[in-house]
Amino acid sequence: MSDLTPAAQRWLACHHGVITTSILRRCGVGRTTRERLLRTGVLCPASKGIFILASAPRSLEQRAGALCAAHPSGFVTGPTAGSMLGLRRMPKSAAIHFAIRHGARVDGVVGVKFRQTTALDEHDRRRRDDGITVPSWSRLAFDLAADLRELDLISVLNQLLHERKVTSEELVAIERRLGHPARPGSGRFRRAIERLDGRAPHESHPEVRVAAGLRARNVPIEAQTVVSRPNGRTARIDLAVPSVRWGVELDIHPEHATVEGRANDVRRLRDLHRATWQIETVVEGDLKDIDGLCDELARVYRARVQALGGNHPGVS
Question: Are 77 and 183 contained in the same domain?
Answer without folding.
Answer: yes
